[in-house]
Amino acid sequence: MRKRVTLTAMAALTGSALAMTLPAAAVPTIRAADAPWVVSVGDSYISGEAGRWAGNTAKKAVVDLDKVDALGKTAYDDNPDGTGELIEGCHRSKSAEIHFGRDTLRRTVNSMNLACSGATTSSAFSSLLSGRLFKPGLDFYQDSRGNKGQAQLLKEFAAGHKVTMVVVSIGGNDFGFSDVITSCFLVYLVPGVPHCHAKTSVKAKLDADAVDKVTKAIVTAYRNVRDAMRQAGYAPGSYTIMVQNYPQALPPDAAANYRYKEDYSRLNSGGCGLYNDDSDWATSDFLSVVRGAVARAVVLSKVPGIRTLDLTHAFADRRLCEKTVKLFEDTKLPKGSADKGADQLEWIYAIHARGDHQQESLHPNYWGQLALRNCLRQAYGEGKPRSGTCTRMTAGGLNAVKEPNMTFTPTSPPMYATTLFAATQDSFGGNLGGAERDGIRSQLESGVRQLELDVVADNGTLKVGNGKPGSGVDTSGRNPKVFDLASWLGVVASWMADPANAYAAPITLVLDLRTTFSPADLFRLNSALHTAFGDRMLTGDLGGIPVSDLYGRVIPILAGDANARLAYTHDLATDPTVGINKSGLVITVEEGPQDTLWYWTGRVDESAGSVTWLSHGKYDTGQSPAVVLTDDNTVLEVHQSENHNTLWYRLGKIDDHGRVAWRTGQKKPFDDGIHPTLKLLDSSTVAEVHRRDSAKPEYELQFGSIGPTSVTWHDEADTDIGYFDNHIASSATWHISVTAGWLDNGSSRKGLAYRLQRVGSGAGPVQRVTYPQVAGVECDRSDSRADWTELLPYCFSFGTRAGTDDSVRTWVKNMRASGKPVRVWGFAAADAKLPMPTFAATDHPYADWYRRYLAEHYYST
User: Fold this and answer.
1) pLDDT tens, position by position, 286-311
2) Burial bucket for residue 108 (CB in 10 Å: 0-12, 13-18, 19+)
3) What is the pLDDT of residues 595-621, one digit of tens each?
4) What pTM did the predictor assign?
5) 505-534 per-position pLDDT tens digit
6) For the stretch 543-556, what's the b/e string if a residue is b when 16 or more beta carbons lie within 10 angstroms of its beta carbon?
7) How far apart are CA 321 and CA 130, in angstroms?
8) How far is CA 98 from CA 42, 88, 377, in A?
9) Are residues 468 and 436 in contact, defined by beta-carbon separation less than 8 angstroms?
10) Strand order in 734-744's β-sheet?
């Protein structure tokens, strides 16, 4: 069975508790000079579960257990006199990370631990131990027996204390991670029993509806923390909510990194009895869903000022059963809590499927808790908490307060360009040609967030195919049975429309244009994208946008044929002229290649101070065109023959869609000369000036009366007034000018451009005459120097074929430095040492090497 492509973080195991409550406290006046308090809420991964034990031992004798018992039997006693737990089973240990004591300036910071092992987002009764036991969730629950949820407890505590930070760890128990690990542990080495990750009940925990439900529950939990503080009298900005995710407790790539073989020693000695594939699935696939839900909930909650602490790799080389650490009895340490224990022992407590220690299984132990405490202190800093990642210092050792040395790296939110996304090339090809992609929908369901479709223009239609319609297209399974582009875009749109996918990372849709595209084809492409995705689409320079701001969006990118990309981004026509009328309708006419004549029509967007271009097309052949536009949308165009000095005109009208319907079936001659120019005198009269020939600067003036289907020319005479400037046109409200090139910060740019100016105001900026930029454009490493130079100002991403030579490595590194997304296609196992691209596009998204690559680079789903 194929495995979903995802990355993860460790969720908390479910514990149990007896119904007890925090004693009511008087509400004193909070003074600014009071020492600050920090409060922890959530589950066992922040309550301090397993914080009693410094390392693991395979021996069962009390004398042996005492050697790894760092805190003794009172480790979890948190009532006022230290004789028991306020809520039995919450396991709020004395080593819990919240008790970091002082900030980085050595100033006192008080702490309160309200978290509870086994807690979910909602308060509930548990039957994991005898009886029905209350587990306070992160809500405002209250009942007649005095049970209260953690949000209610937080509100009551914060009202009487100066709380500056609330630290939250929640969601793992909502996903049922404890049940999953227990299931995997119990099937280990049992003949004939399927591995646990293949069980229907386990896979159901990753069902889209289930993930959506838990994500929404976490959103509510974060909002409950905000509401508790608001009800306690705190204004926004007067405190910080710090959301932390879950550290990996098991080594990634189990076959390579477990110190025990897949035999009884792993179970009996290591306390990590899991099959390699079950362990890898839990450490990557399952936990990526947990981490993704925690991260997405931060954004979806819309709670301002949340900070995040990424602990994913905090326990690297100190995870349970990892090759780099040992059991206590395999060291020469006198006790597990001895200073050197942090560098030799595991930081995760072993798995116990039953018995007294089951609840403590697979949680950060004494050293793990102290490591997290160091992380949290650094995140708190000088009292202004920051987001960041925390990892173990490679050199090891302890700090001045006997905590493992950890490195805290402040971070900004993950940005689109610098995040890794699972990606496929030739996504339409399914499993053809030895690839293993499956269908489009299956790719999306497995976490692929960049798809690539080859698109061809075919007799007025757009089809999917490698060079021709249907070539290399897999229509089996849930893929469309036809080749039209709209059907394939519809698969993506349908998946995005599912509420369960509303929180997915953005889908980057690469459209590889495999043929020449006419202006009409490019308009069809825009229309197809609009129809499929509507306001879900985004384009522009998005590299520096946080990924969380792009959830649920699609980002189209055009790759492939350089001429098609050039035509989409800018028009290389020459000698443009322009007309405008009182309603803000605009028309330009210009010369294209090989003496072709083209037009653009558009409409002024007054609020944006720009023109929205509506239609573009070839209308004739010739040279030196000029145009005027009347208030009833009538177009009069004149031009010179490409072969002779004959002057021609065409009459037409612009419809509501911006298309020009030419009234004259063919152009009509009206004189001889060169370079005709026009000036609109009133709604039905124009003046026209041209030179007689190129030899002498002699000009001729005549007038034209515009009729329904033709123009009557009259009163021809010599003149010395010179040409009319048809590069400029005016209405009562707007001036517009057009040009075939412009200066951009001192650099010369080619392409049709305009400048719009409201009458009586200053001139606006130079803007391109081009299609609405529904899609971005990719610059390809294989582009010619000339094409690269022309495209570069408009490229929002870069692409190259994968390769192991130094030139590819250098190119990827340099392009990443630009701050724009980088796509590397043909990505194979040998390319894993390349600088990380944004999109590592492969034919094998389910392969173990690819999943490991994604997991190692903390990718986004």
Assistant:
1) 888 898 889 888 877 878 889 999 99
2) exposed
3) 999 999 999 999 989 999 998 888 999
4) 0.64
5) 899 999 999 999 988 899 899 999 999 999
6) bebebbebbebbbb
7) 31
8) 12, 19, 9
9) no
10) 728-730, 734-744, 747-758, 766-768
